[in-house]
Write a structure and sequence with these properties.
Oligomer: single chain
Number of domains: 2
Number of helices: 2
Radius of gyration: 26 Å
Largest sheet: 5 strands, antiparallel
Structural class: alpha+beta
Helix content: 25-40%
Number of strands: 5
Strand content: 25-35%
Distance between the termini: 79 Å
Length: 116
């Protein structure tokens, strides 16, 4: 390789090196963002992960609910999960279903929480 060819490739090598460094930094940043399923994550607040006894808040409307798991000590807690995967709820309970493409993914029976 002649000296003039090396001079022309040197800026390209610098760009390639910078791109590799940027990719490595991006992968490090993405992987170090923390646990995406920990207590504060969106996945941990999804109604599908609610257990019997957990409380939920409806951030939507009655016709288009948007349930989120929330601490039972919160003043925003509206319902407590009484049961999951039941096809019928007891009197006084509300039924919540989540569907995907017309198929029920899960359902739960909810009891109202007394206002705080």
């Amino acid at each position: 390789m002649s000296n003039s060819s090396f001079s022309r490739l040197s800026p390209l090598m610098k760009v390639v090196t910078l791109l590799i460094a940027a990719v490595v930094a991006g992968v490090w940043w993405y992987s170090s963002r923390g646990n995406t399923t920990g207590p504060g994550s969106e996945a941990a607040k999804a109604p599908a992960v609610a257990e019997v006894g957990d409380c939920v808040q409806n951030k939507g409307s009655d016709g288009s609910p948007d349930m989120e798991v929330i601490g039972c000590s919160s003043a925003k807690a509206e319902y407590k999960v009484a049961s999951k995967f039941e096809s019928e709820c007891k009197p006084g309970q509300s039924q919540y279903q989540e569907t995907r493409r017309g198929r029920v993914q899960f359902e739960m029976c909810l009891e109202p929480v007394a206002p705080k």
